[in-house]
Amino acid sequence: KMAAGEAAGRYRSSMGRSKDPSGLLISVIRTLSTSDDVEDRETEKGRLEEAYEKCDRDLDELIVQHYTELTTAIRTYQSITERITNSRNKIKQVKENLLSCKMLLHCKRDELRKLWIEGIEHKHVLNLLDEIENIKQVPQKLEQCMASKHYLNATDMLVSAVDSLEGPLLQVEGLSDLRLELHSKKMNMHLVLIDELHRHLYIKSTNRVGQRPKEKGRISSLVKDASSVPLMDVTNLSTPRKFLDTSQFGTPGSSSMRETSLLEIKEDAELDPEENSTAFMGILIKGLAKLKKIPETVKAIQERLEKELKQIVKRSTTQVADNGYQRGENLSQENQPR
After folding, report:
1. Which of 53, 165, 199, 273 is 20 to 30 A removed from 313 (C-alpha atoms)?
2. Which residue spans traverse the membrane (predicted)?
């Protein structure tokens, strides 16, 4: 009995010191394990049941006293739990939607890339179609340029068209005839330019040599002295030697000398290309350079040099003879009384 009393005291003291349920349970187990008497255990059991009953009564009283607060707390807790559950479900749904959006964006990105590539391909095809349309008009435009002797524009047009036909448009079978035609014209274009160059070198540049200057008054005033020979004014003739003479290209009042480059020569479609013989020969040389026929041009000039110089001598002799005959006729007319 004394042991039971001591166990009950320890139980009460443990109840008073700690409110931890696990500590209380351990204390009860220790008390029961140290007790050897069944009666003491029954007594301890009874006391525990009494304590639990008292605890239930106190809990019921507290529930009755705080029913409103308890109900509110339970409802609040239920509301919080429902909100947390709904939030979790919404977050899960958002995650699923984000994954779905990510997949759709990947699909859209691939589709947009495909459309972008198709757009580039269509643009390239349209450019090729425009180029084909322009190239089909090249023969007609080339004929017009050749007729008006705008050889630089014709050369640029022909070289560009042949490069396109033998480059990006090489696989277009419908342009095979046009390709052969323009290629043949390109192969023979330099012959026309060389002929024009020789005409200006040897004929155009010397057509005024031997011509007597026209001044006011009667022609007889120039031939009063029978021993005098008409002078030939060749200072202003357009000769190949003067092509590099920069005095005519310099700015007024400037004494600086600079060489004229072929890159600076341009062709004006509205002016007569042969008006300036020097510039026209520069255009011819530039056209031959674009055709890559400079070696053939030099060779042709060397081969025809002797022949052309003999023709110049022949023409000059004929002009001098004609001028002498005309001068004699004029003198004989002046010696007449009338």
Report:
1. 273
2. none
Mean pLDDT of the 293-318 span? 86
Please state the pTM of the whole predicted model. 0.48
Q: How far is CA 197 from CA 202, 206, 308, 329, in A?
A: 9, 13, 12, 38
Between vectors from CA 37 to CA 32 and to CA 42, what angle results, nearest 5°? 65
What is the distance in angstroms between the CA of the first residue and the CA of the last residue of the chain?
191
* Amino acid at position 56, single letter: D
Average pLDDT over the chain, rounded to an integer:
75
Encode the chain in three state secondary structure: CHHHHHHHHHHHHHHHHCCCHHHHHHHHHHHHHHCCCHHHHHHHHHHHHHHHHHHHHHHHHHHHHCHHHHHHHHHHHHHHHHHHHHHHHHHHHHHHHHHHHHHHHHHHHHHHHHHHHHHHHHHHHHHHHHHHHHHHCHHHHHHHHHHCCCHHHHHHHHHHHHHHHCCCCCCCHHHHHHHHHHHHHHHHHHHHHHHHHHHHHHHHHHCCCCCCCCCCCCHHHHCCCCCCCCCCCCCCCCCHHHHHCHHHCCCCCCCCCCCCCHHHCCCCCCCCCCCCHHHHHHHHHHHHHHCCCHHHHHHHHHHHHHHHHHHHHHHHHHHHHHHHHHHHHHHHHHCCCC
